[in-house]
Amino acid sequence: MVDFKLFLDKELQIPAGDPIELGKLKAGETKKYKYYIYNSSVFPYEELKYDFNVANVKVLQAPDELLEKRSAEFIIEWKPKVDVEKGLKTTLEIDGYFAIKG
After folding, report:
1. Looking at per-residue confidence, does 2 or 89 come out higher?
2. How much is the pTM?
3. Is the pLDDT of residue 101 over 70?
4. Percentages (nearest 5) of helix, strand, coil residues in the chain
5. What digits encode the pLDDT tens for the residues 78-93?
6. What are the boundaries of each domain within the chain?
7. How many Cα atoms occupy the beta-carbon half-sphere of 44 within 13 Å?
8. Are 60 and 75 in contact (CB under 8 A)?
9. N or C: at which end does the chain have fewer Cβ atoms within 10 angstroms?
10. Across the chain, what does the average pLDDT equal?
11. 8 A C-beta contact, residue 68 and residue 16
């Protein structure tokens, strides 16, 4: 995720942190989170894929492509199957291809 940064605000002033802290939640409950993903590279990316290192975190909205120096909404949902009392922390892996034209 070197070229991508995750922020809590649309102005890209508050980093989401790494790992991402999702907090506490009881089994069966659902919580949604809105972030903003920023492509800090000088290249556009395409065919973006997102992967979390924990189960039960699902991407609801994310860009398939992201131009250089641009941001987009990134919305996830977490629905644990067991109570999480200590707070869940997860990492996000992003893979994609440079979209170099020409």
Report:
1. 89
2. 0.91
3. no
4. 0, 55, 45
5. 999 888 888 899 999 9
6. 4-98
7. 11
8. yes
9. C
10. 93
11. no
